User: What shape does this take?
Amino acid sequence: MTIRFSCLSLLATFAAGVLSPVVLAAPPAAVDTAPTYTVDGRIVPPKNYRQWVFLSSGVDMSYNKKAMASKVPMFDNTFVPRAAYQSFLKTGTWPDKTQIVLEVRGSAHDKSINHRGHFQSGAPMAIEMHVKDSKRFKGGWAFFGVDADTMQPAKQIPTDRACYSCHKAHGAVDTTFVQFYPELLPIARKLDTLSDGYLNDE
Amino acid sequence: MTIRFSCLSLLATFAAGVLSPVVLAAPPAAVDTAPTYTVDGRIVPPKNYRQWVFLSSGVDMSYNKKAMASKVPMFDNTFVPRAAYQSFLKTGTWPDKTQIVLEVRGSAHDKSINHRGHFQSGAPMAIEMHVKDSKRFKGGWAFFGVDADTMQPAKQIPTDRACYSCHKAHGAVDTTFVQFYPELLPIARKLDTLSDGYLNDE
Assistant: This one.
């Protein structure tokens, strides 16, 4: 276990002359929600986060300079609700009640017709959440480690853990690692919402 | 350029005791659409496919046994409209009018606070589409190569290209590479929609 597991580390029309579009028969069911909590303050992991908007993925990332490469590369995938994503596109930052879900997946290599590189394989090995809820959390955001097997409500990670200070010091936008989300980084730059910490790191 | 560029290769609640959920202020705008074409039969690339459902990503994949590893790893990300995804969850296969978008992205390594592995970086380098439109395409599906810079309407890739025969022979479900989509493969197995070609490969 490296720091990547103890912290939400890896937080990635119609043109002229077009015929009338045909809408798919069944409209998609709504899946976006704001965070919900149990009465004792644990967060309820969103069961349908895979239908949220994908921010990006990375492979074998670590913020630890001494970290060794893993034998089997691990991917991370990051997701936010569509409403939060669309808000970021307009404002360059996250609205209150944003939930970011990070999942870690294993990989496979020489399977089926693939002979090079790696693809994601198997069930999630770890899930973490980063949640913005200004009235509830000091500093606006909180981290949660979720059991990927059970998806049961999860306690907040204590605020003295390194994830909080690291995200605050280095997160490109509002304590989140937008520097790793290639669709959003240019928007934050354009709308001038990049943090001083990130600009200093650059 | 390897085969991975000439073919859509990498085609991947409320619990007890919960407080009332709070809905994000602005409901997300609808983004799902069926394929649209110009009057001369080119497909119109969907500008908002990044708000579709993410299927999976891979890194440096190739179906060519002689392919060399690239100096800078390349990621692929695959997306489908939410309605098509939800239909797959229920049926184990794709509804008519499904569009699958594959984008290829470059990567970065030792930037910001990351010291190991790779994260996605920069604009899309290539975009390909795999589209199911039974009345329009012989065999039901067609491939399109889209210019990622201009996102202009794109001509169909001729049906004698290897992508068609390869996907037909090895695609786990309905000529698509569901074997690389870890959330969907178990559903296809459960609903018994895996192709004979895939089962033989296994």
Observations:
- DSSP finds five helices and five strands in chain B.
